[in-house]
Amino acid sequence: MPELLWDDVKGSLDLEGEGCLPDVWVTGTTVQDWKAVLDLIVASGWRSEYSEGGVVMPLPRAGEVLSRSADAECADLRVWPTPDVLAIFRFESAEEIGFDVDLRELQGQERLDVLCGFLRAIGRRLGKSVVMTPEGDWERNHPVLGFDVESDQMVLLTEPQVS
Fold first, then answer.
1. Residue 135 in contact with residue 22, Cβ under 8 Å?
2. Is the pTM for the entire model greater than 0.85?
3. Of the candidates 160, 18, 29, which has an alpha carbon nearest to the alpha carbon of residue 97?
4. Distances (CA, A) of 146 to 40, 51, 115, 153, 155
5. What CA–CA distance (Å, rounded) separates 61 from 32?
């Protein structure tokens, strides 16, 4: 049985209320944590595509990406845990790992299970909690759901919405 049920979560994953691209965060990270996530992506066989300024290129080591100059082209890593679910990682800081997911791709129990498996895999690999917040919630005041490292499970962090 899934840890999170679509019927309990769907109101919290509202396309209009949360924005289409919620942010996912792991805080308190290091370059080694980024390396661990990149290794997980490769080991899991998830399709991925690294680019700088829109130009696709081979994935460099985590330390190289994170030590690029401030005026360097924007670097991102697109990861498909399944062919129809995309996560876009941004290499903004060694101190936190951040990426976006698209709620339009995450409707229904099957897609929620993909998201949960993806967040759980990252959280377990790092031994850290993973939290999803609404698009643009930079202060992270309104967490929606996440992987709780203490309980080793996915949790809903808002009250279930009745639709």
1. yes
2. yes
3. 29
4. 18, 27, 10, 8, 6
5. 10
Token pair recorded at residue 52:
């700088």
* Contact of 49 with 78, CB cutoff 8 Å: yes
| 3-class secondary-structure state, position 55 | strand
113 alpha carbon, distance to own chain's centre: 14
3-state secondary structure 79-140: EEEECCEEEEEEEEECCEEEEEECHHHCCCHHHHHHHHHHHHHHHHHHCCCEEEECCCCCCC
Comparing C-alpha atoms, which of 39, 44, 81 is closest to residue 61? Answer: 39
Measured CA to CA, the distance from residue 113 to residue 136 in angstroms comes to 24
Phi, psi dihedrals of residue 38, rounded to the nearest 5°:
-65, -40
Q: What is the pLDDT of residues 51-90, one digit of tens each?
A: 999 999 999 999 999 999 888 888 999 999 999 999 999 9
- Residue whose C-alpha is closest to residue 67's, from 31, 99, 98: 31
Reported confidence tier of residue 141, pLDDT bands at 50, 70, 90: confident
Distance CA 40, CA 37 (A): 5
